[in-house]
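Quick log. Single chain, no ligands specified.
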Amino acid sequence: MNWSTLKKCILMLVLACIIHVAWLGWDSFILLNPQYWQVVNLDIVRI
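-> predicted structure:
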């Protein structure tokens, strides 16, 4: 691909934001549903 440096940086920032939003969604889902606490390491989720 013939992308400029700016477009590559924007792509990396967008992908990183998507990953962080997915992680926050997963954390929220686990913490709001106690029935899943037994199968998840809560020490990692609460960090």
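The mean pLDDT is 89.
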